[in-house]
């Protein structure tokens, strides 16, 4: 027997038979390799609606899964939970090249979407490392960020309309395809970034852009963080809106990913205090390249850049990005804990210095690596305390998260809250905000069946 979030019981065998009637025999997976009660794989919004209606009647908790690339345990399901997988909802329904929109099902893989729209001379602005397996629905549910937020915004900025199914099976279809639609509440915002706790996203209309016809990339060495801030403002001003990426690597991380056994190599004569990967997307070819080079020369003349290497080919550009993306180098350390936080750019230097000093003070041999999408205020932090001890993860989390109160930061920049970060939500959100989140959850999912325990946790605790 399984116990739903409301406390009543349902017979799993009967429920599974009803689910098979909806999705077909291949739509329900069970067995020893399935950690959850079962995996149900609907093919359409209508099937998702029928599945959730059955689960509501059976008081069966449901965990939605897309590409399973989340890092906060949001899609991890337990033995008593039913997994709703969007893997068979993988159709690109249509591309409007004139209106620059695409209509997709939630299970479409990000890279598949990118390649399909590129054939039409268009691009989808959201991009991140897990593009080969992450799905559109998952990125909407978590409001994913990535490498190009500084130009295209978070996923939220690319969603024009969507379709979602509530916990009781009600379909909310708001498949707007217009940039301007100011008619009442913008209901899609309820589901973007709610991590599947308010409804299951099944379809979406996404905004596209013309493919840039030129791209300029450079690695820039800076002597201090003040120079990084000046360089950011300078490049934004001189590139006239074409700045697409501004990635910063602190020295410890840059050293790790450019020193053997890492495959990357530094283009600089001496190792910089901070290294910035700057990239602009344009449409003017040679004049873009000249403008990019001129901006870097001016930055060097002003003292904001100590050195710079401009990519002379696609291969060199890819090599620069591989340095930034060589996060696998961190996997050689154990235990190691990885975080994505956000805070005002002007507070970053003090925060990083404090964290690095505290790691060194607490653990001889402790390491702290920092890099991130500085242009949009996002830092990725990894801490290796160099020893195992009881409660070590909680200790490291406190070191990383508690100072964010002082620096006006957020415990999650782009990965969401899920289960892993729920104990730290109050660092970022007030009591009143969390209470309002719970009231929204209670209103849309009164039985607490959708992704229970995620973000704000159970909404029916008072009933127990």
Automatic annotation (TrEMBL):
One of its GO terms (molecular function) is oxidoreductase activity. Residues 32-211 form the FAD-binding PCMH-type domain. SUPFAM superfamilies: FAD-binding/transporter-associated domain-like (SSF56176), FAD-linked oxidases, C-terminal domain (SSF55103). It comes from the Bacteria. One of its GO terms (biological process) is respiratory electron transport chain. It holds the Pfam family FAD_binding_4. Keywords: FAD, Flavoprotein, Oxidoreductase. The keyword Oxidoreductase applies. Its cofactor is FAD. Belongs to the FAD-binding oxidoreductase/transferase type 4 family. This is FAD-binding oxidoreductase. It comes from Variovorax boronicumulans.
């Amino acid at each position: 027997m399984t116990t739903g979030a409301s406390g009543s019981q349902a017979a799993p065998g009967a429920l599974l038979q009803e689910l098979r009637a909806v999705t077909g025999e291949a739509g329900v997976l069970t067995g020893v390799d399935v950690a959850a009660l079962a995996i149900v794989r609907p093919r359409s919004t209508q099937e998702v609606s029928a599945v959730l209606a059955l689960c509501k009647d059976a008081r069966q908790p449901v965990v939605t899964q897309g590409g399973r690339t989340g890092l906060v345990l949001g899609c991890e399901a337990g033995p008593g939970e039913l997994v709703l997988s969007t893997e068979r909802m993988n159709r690109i329904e249509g591309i409007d090249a004139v209106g620059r929109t695409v209509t997709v099902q939630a299970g479409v893989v990000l890279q598949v979407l990118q390649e399909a729209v590129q054939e039409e001379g268009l691009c989808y602005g959201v991009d991140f490392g897990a593009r080969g397996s992450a799905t559109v629905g998952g990125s909407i549910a978590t409001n994913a960020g990535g490498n190009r937020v500084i130009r295209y915004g978070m996923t939220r900025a690319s969603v024009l309309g969507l379709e979602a199914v509530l916990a009781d099976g009600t379909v909310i279809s708001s498949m707007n395809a217009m940039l301007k639609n100011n008619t009442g509440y913008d209901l899609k915002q309820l589901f973007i970034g709610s991590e599947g706790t308010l409804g299951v996203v099944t379809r979406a209309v996404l905004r596209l852009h013309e493919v840039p016809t030129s791209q300029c990339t450079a690695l820039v060495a800076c002597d201090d963080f003040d120079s990084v801030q000046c360089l950011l403002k300078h490049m934004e001003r001189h590139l006239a809106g074409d700045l697409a990426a501004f990635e910063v690597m602190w020295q410890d991380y840059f050293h790790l990913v450019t020193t053997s056994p890492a495959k990357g190599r530094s283009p600089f004569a001496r190792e910089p205090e901070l290294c910035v990967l700057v990239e602009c997307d344009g449409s003017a070819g040679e004049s873009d390249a000249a403008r990019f080079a001129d901006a870097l020369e001016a930055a060097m003349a002003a003292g904001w850049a100590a050195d710079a290497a401009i990519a002379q080919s696609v291969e060199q550009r890819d090599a620069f990005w591989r340095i930034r993306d060589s996060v696998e180098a961190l996997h050689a350390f154990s235990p190691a804990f990885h975080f994505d936080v956000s805070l005002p750019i002007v507070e970053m230097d003090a925060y990083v210095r404090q964290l690095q000093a505290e790691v060194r003070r607490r653990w001889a041999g402790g390491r702290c690596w920092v890099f991130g999408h500085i242009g949009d205020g996002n830092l990725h932090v990894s801490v290796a305390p160099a020893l195992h001890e009881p409660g070590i993860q909680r200790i490291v989390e406190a070191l990383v998260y508690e100072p964010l109160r002082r620096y006006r930061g957020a415990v999650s920049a782009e990965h969401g809250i899920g289960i892993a970060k729920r104990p730290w939500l109050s660092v970022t959100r007030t009591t009143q905000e969390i209470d309002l989140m719970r009231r929204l959850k209670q209103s849309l999912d009164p039985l607490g069946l959708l992704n229970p325990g995620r973000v704000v946790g159970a909404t029916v605790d008072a009933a127990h």
